[in-house]
Amino acid sequence: MKEFLQVLRRFVPPYKKYLALSVLFNILSAVLNIFSFATLIPMLQILFKTGDADTATSLMPWALDKDTLMNNMNYYVNDLIATMGATTTLLFIGLALAFMTFLKTGAYFLSSATIIPIRTGVVRDIRNQLYQKINQLSLGFFSEERKGDIIARMSGDVQEIESSIMSSLDMLFKNPILIIVYFATLLVISWQLTIFTILFVPIFGWFMGYVGRKLKAKSMKAQALWSDTMSQVEETLGGLRIIKAFCAEEKMNKRFDKVNSAYRNDIMRVNIRQQMAHPMSEFLGTVMIVIVLWFGGILVLNNQAITGPTFIYYMVVLYSIIQPLKDFSKAGYNIPKGLASMERVDKILKAEVSIKEKENPIHVSSFEHDIEFRHVGFKYDQQWVLRDINLIIPKGKTVALVGQSGGGKSTLVDLIPRYYDVQEGEVLIDGINVKDLGIHDLRQLIGNVNQEAILFNDTFLNNITFGVENAKMEDVERAAKIANAYDFIMESENGFDTNIGDRGGRLSGGQRQRVSIARAILKNPPILILDEATSALDTESERLVQDALYKLMKTRTTIAIAHRLSTIKNADEICVIHEGHIVERGTHTSLLAADGYYKKLHDMQQ
């Protein structure tokens, strides 16, 4: 319960007014229920002529105690019987019962209706927080987490929180109120019977809590298996071409069935245990009713401590308290499942953001002098990827990084926009450490064109204007023309309003790359990072993309990673990176003349 209350403290405060209204309507519903049941006493007295009302010969001053209320009610009933007759009095009491039941059910409906904005609002807030946190977290976090697992937490786990925790809100704010009001009424009617009854409630509660704790452990395991299932779906969608090429459909089917069946078995055990709640509470409730009937019968028949009609009223109220207790126990089953999912969601929500902006960052809007790597060292976990990198890239110059795969080239350029932070040395822009700059200001200075063009399932227009607010159409068209993308965009069915499909799937590789170049041109950044932007293209596409890149690089400071050395022959400086160190640097001609590592790479490509 402590964990549940912590979840409520985190997410419910914005909806306090709805909570207050729900509590108010629940109190009103419970009070109206008690008074509507009280009409049973005079009805039973009239029907069975018990004579319990004969002693009420005069009105007593109104007070909130049982004897006064019973006396005055009996007095008015006797007066009605004397004036209008027993059958007419019975009709009036029945109408009063119907009217109070109408008010009670209205209050009950309003109490449930006011909980719905809380339920739906909290789930929306959790999803928003998850999405915002995913955007905040550094790239390093996602290299250790599977995409499918993150998707599972945002879909399955959040759905479980809604169906388990949020659906229990109504039960948890309504049932305690009903239980307290009904219990107080039982004490007023007969404290002897009530004390006898409550001996069974702690046993009932302990047993439900024990089963609930077991349920949470099972739910954690089941949700982890759901993440594995989603991860395999995500991997399959990404690798469908390879699966078909290697005729591995049957292998992947068996692999998926293994995880899917394990999830089914675990969730089946969780749900079977959850289904125990209703029959168990039904049985325990019936046992309690039987014992109370026996003990109450002794009080009615032997001791005359309570009258027959009052005892039946007591039993009706007691039976009414059983349903809230059942619902409360059901919530006790549901909540552990939701808390298990909340723990998994919190692994993202409470994950530490490793790339943090300092408290009072330096704000910049332009790039004036140079980018400098000063004694930079970087490692993933325990393995060093870069060691003692010293490099100055003057404004307006093009520096190319070449070398074997895994040598640290991409990591080096990722340090400039602070996708990662260095462990040794510092990266400076215009003499200012990038850690001291505002992250948003820093990244506004930089444009990226990657080996894999990252596009979104949207139109050409929205992909090109991505990250640029209020772009003019003439600027978008100009960017597309410079990127050699204008012609094929205009040939598409709806021009710039044509949807390009998931990750640009309706376009060729060269077209995707030119759209991403148009996006970089429209952003118009002073610093440009090209990460093997032409390595995956055919000769004709490479020529068009290379032409677009040349236009883009003219007036910018460029850092280009390249495997094809022919694409960076005109760079102002070429740095050869091998095993995390810069082993050679110079122009294309001077490096060939040096007859070193660069010459070997060049000869292999020739």
Detailed description of the structure:
There is one protein chain. The protein has 3 domains: 13-114; 119-352, ABC transporter transmembrane region fold (Up-down Bundle), CATH 1.20.1560.10; 370-605, Rossmann fold, CATH 3.40.50. It contains 24 helices and 10 strands. The protein has helices at residues 2-11, 16-38, 40-48, 66-84, 86-113, 116-136, 139-144, 147-166, 168-189, 191-197, 201-238, 240-245, 249-274, 277-303, 308-349, 409-414, 439-444, 460-464, 473-482, 486-491, 509-523, 539-553, 588-594, 597-605, and strands at residues 370-380, 383-394, 398-402, 424-429, 432-433, 446-450, 527-531, 557-561, 573-578, 581-586. The chain has a 6-stranded mixed sheet. Strand 4 (424-429) and strand 5 form a beta hairpin. Helix 14 packs antiparallel against helix 15 and helix 21 (509-523) runs parallel beside helix 22 (539-553). The chain is elongated.
